[in-house]
Amino acid sequence: MKFLPTLPLATDADVHVVWRADVSEALLRKGRGGDGIAAEVAKRAAAAVLERIEVCPPNGLEAVAVPIGAARAWLAEAPLRDIADVESVVADERESEDATSPDSKPAFAWRGDESAVVVADDLRPGMTIVVPTSYGGLADGTWDPASLTAVEDIGDRKQTERELRRLADHDSLTGLLNRRGFME
Fold first, then answer.
1. How are beta strands 14-20 and 128-132 bridged, if at all?
2. Is residue 4 part of a domain?
3. In a domain, 80, yes or no
4. In whole angstroms, what is the distance from residue 103 CA to residue 16 CA?
5. Per the domain annotation, does 142 fall within a domain?
6. Domain identity same for 131 and 181
7. Counting C-beta atoms within 10 Å of the first and last residue's C-beta, which end of the chain has fewer, N or C?
8. What is the pTM of this model?
9. The pLDDT of residue 162
């Protein structure tokens, strides 16, 4: 008997974008370093961003999967054009283009202890990046790179919803599933 392989919900060529109100572009730029910013100042700024994000780590409920080419163009503030969502096509296009502008909007690549401030050229497939809500990029809950409207930070709300669901299904004294948890 043969089974069909399961398909992933998002392609490997996607970048997962999470918007956060407690992360500012100024702090990300400091964390990136360069432009006369001392290495120690950059290290402290990056650590401050990580500390803020660790309070409520990014999760799939708040992330939006974006084709890597579209995410790179958005952060680089490049003119929008037809962008392939296949990494090999994007890589071929990028070889013939100029490098990303040094003015590229910084983002924070979430990888636990190996997290770092990145720019458009640093993005890799499968990355989860955290950006300030001031960057825009969403309209009516869907990806819209042309949108400049600040995005609502839903991370705290989703974490609270998850905790309430857990409390509803578990006994507060023992932590075991309660009747409701067994029925579902």
1. parallel
2. no
3. yes
4. 22
5. yes
6. no
7. N
8. 0.69
9. 80
